[in-house]
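Q: Convert this sequence to structure tokens.
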Amino acid sequence: MKTFKLASAFSALVFSALMMTSVTAASIPEDKIDTLRQAPINVEPTPPAMQAVLNKDIKEVRNYPMQPPVIPHKIDGYQLDLKVNKCMACHARQRTGDSQAPMVSVTHYMDRDNNFLAELSPRRYFCTQCHVPQLDAKLLVENDFVDMDHLIKANTEQKKH
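A:
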């Protein structure tokens, strides 16, 4: 019985020592922080200034099939909640004649069983879950994305040679 208690106490002591060592090692900050925050997790850095939204009202070319169109104008102050969807003031079927804005896709008037609805589908009501304003922002990480048109063109040219 004494041996069991002694072994348990020794195991607890070793476990505690290991835990303290790992916590101490993890809490020592490195000289270079390899994150986008560029600050330790326990420091609240000053956030960067908000980027300006491109306000060109010109349709942007999509980079891949089925990409939701980006919003080519500012939406600051637009009410978008359960009671009001400000986007529909211009993009609803009934309003596009006056606003000259593109109509919301017909798919936004379909339910999950592909039945057409008279009103905007509840699952498509919050526009900004897919559509976002475009910024002219500096890339935070390197990006070597190539759109479909460039891939097809490169493939066609490769087959010619």
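The chain is about 30% helix and 0% strand.
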